Amino acid sequence: MQIIKKVLNSSVVLVDDERGVERVLLGKGIGFGAKPGDVVDEGATDRVFVALDDADQRNLVELLAQIPGEFVELTREIVRDAVASGLDLDPHIYLTLTDHLHFAVERHRRGLVVVNRLAWELRTVYPDEYAVGSRGVELLRARMRVDVPDEEAANIAFHLANAANGRAGADTMHVVRLISAATTIVSNTTGIAFGDDLHSSRFLVHLQFFAERVFSGRMLDSDDGFLFESMSRRHPRATATAERVRALVRTQHDIEITDEEVAYLALHIARAVPG
Hints:
Blueprint: E1 3-9, E2 12-16, E3 22-26, E4 48-51, H1 55-64, H2 69-84, H3 93-109, H4 119-125, H5 127-144, H6 152-168, H7 172-190, H8 198-216, H9 226-234, H10 236-253, H11 259-272
C-alpha cells in the first residue's frame, strides 16, 4: 500500500510505502485530482517506483513539482525505448532526464544555443544510446512542438549512458571527457585523424572500455610487466603517447593507470602508427 505524501504533477507523486519508505511514483494521470493522504490504487501496473536515498535526489524531486507532467510521460517513452534496446538503466533516469528535457525546451524557446562539444564522441562511443536519443528528439519535437536541433540526441544519449554506467560504477562525463582528451593527445602526437571510419570507431571503442575501467577501479594489472616492457622496446613512440594519457589522468583525476593498461593503449596506438 502506498499513501500519497505530495503531488508533484499530474504524472508524479511522492508516496510512503507500507514500511514508511519514501518513494517517487510515476504513472500517467496518477497525480490528477489526488491529494496527500490518498491511498494509491494498486490496480494499475504501468507505474515506476524510484527510491530516494540522499538530499540531492530529494531536491531534484522538488524540481519535478515545477515541471508539467507531459515531460514525465515523454521520459517514460524514451526509457521504454532504451530498455527495449537492451539498456539497463538506473531508475533515477526518470528524474534526471525529465529535468533535462524540460530545460532543453525552455532553453530553445528562449533562443539559447548550447553546443555539446562531446557530441561526436557520444555518437561514436554510445551508438545504442544515441539511436534512442535520436528517436527521443523526434518525440520531443512532436509532443512539445519545438524544433530542437538534432544535436539534442547527444544530450539524451549522455543521460542514458550515465544511467547505464551508473550500474557499472563509472561516470559518463568523466569517461567521455577522457576519451576526448586521449584522442586529442593521440592525434596531436601521431598525426592520426579521427572520423567516422571503421579504424576510428575501433580505437574509440577501446578507449571507452579503457576509460570505464579507469573510473570504476577495474583496471587490468598483471604482475610480470612483460607486455609493458615489450611495447616500450618495440613501439617507443606509441608507448610515449600512451604515457602522456597516463600523465593526464594522474594530473586531472589523481588516478594512477597501471602499466598493463598503458601497454594495451600503446598497442592500439601502434596498430595505426608503428614506431
